[in-house]
Amino acid sequence: MRKLIATVFNYSLDGLLADEGTEFWKFCFDLPENSEPDDRAHLDFLQSAYAHVMGRTAYESIAAGMATSTDHPFAGILNAGRKIVFSRTLKSADWANTTIAAGDTTEEIDKLRLGGDGHIVVWGGVSLWRSLMRLDLIDELQLSMFPYVAGEGTRLFDGVPKSYQLDLVSSTASSNGIVYLLYRRHR
Description:
This protein is of the alpha/beta class. It has a single domain (4-177), classed as Dihydrofolate Reductase, subunit A. It is 27% helix and 28% strand. It contains six helices and ten strands; from the N terminus they run ββααβααββαβαββββ. It has helices at 23-29, 39-47, 56-66, 75-80, 105-113, 126-134; strands spanning 4-12, 16-17, 51-55, 83-86, 98-101, 120-124, 140-146, 154-155, 166-173, 179-185. The strands form two sheets. An eight-stranded mixed β-sheet has the order 5-4-3-6-1-7-10-9. Strands 2-8 form a two-stranded antiparallel ribbon. The two termini are 16 Å apart. 23% of the residues are buried. One of its GO terms (biological process) is riboflavin biosynthetic process.
């Protein structure tokens, strides 16, 4: 059975996500390009995914930047990869290899989990992440924690059951202070 892995970039020390247009958002994107501790490992992780899952807002944002890009390291992987958009309002998806999932979230995820190789990467957004956590569907959670106290913003874990326990699998620090954390859902 395939694992569902949520990857959360732009996460602050005080547990907030970088909202577009905020100082924290600007801080995240002003960092040097070599922010990943091991770019090859991260690209291999994305390349080996069976599917890339997104909510509507994340899909529209990522597609706008990646669908025609030739220079971003993720562009080739995402453009060729299978993409699933969870949305009840999106009527069409023009980005190649994209399917809209408008049915029951648990049933749609269970279908994706069946079968062979690869894992399922959940890119976001926050509503989808929270929904998947409430339904207890996420197997692993990758957090990129930035050395920044945002003070205000969107909390990732709002509305998630208080008994949502995670086990630390690994942690890696980059030279610019970002800490990459991998947690596994404790079951």
